[in-house]
Amino acid sequence: MYAVPSQALTAAEAWIRQRGIVRYPEPAVETLDPRFAKYNLGSAALELLATGGRWCEGPVWFGDGRYLLWSDIPNNRMLRWEEETGAVSVFRFPSNYANGNTRDRQGRLITCEHGTRRVTRTEYDGSVTVLMDSFNGKRLNGPNDVVVKSDGSIWFTDPGYGLLKNYEGFVAPFELPRYVYRLDPNTGAATVVADDFDRPNGLCFSPDESKLYIVDTGVSHTPNGPQHIRVFDVVDNGTRLANGRIFVDMAPGVADGIRADRDG
Question: Do residues 108 and 57 share a domain?
Answer without folding.
Answer: yes
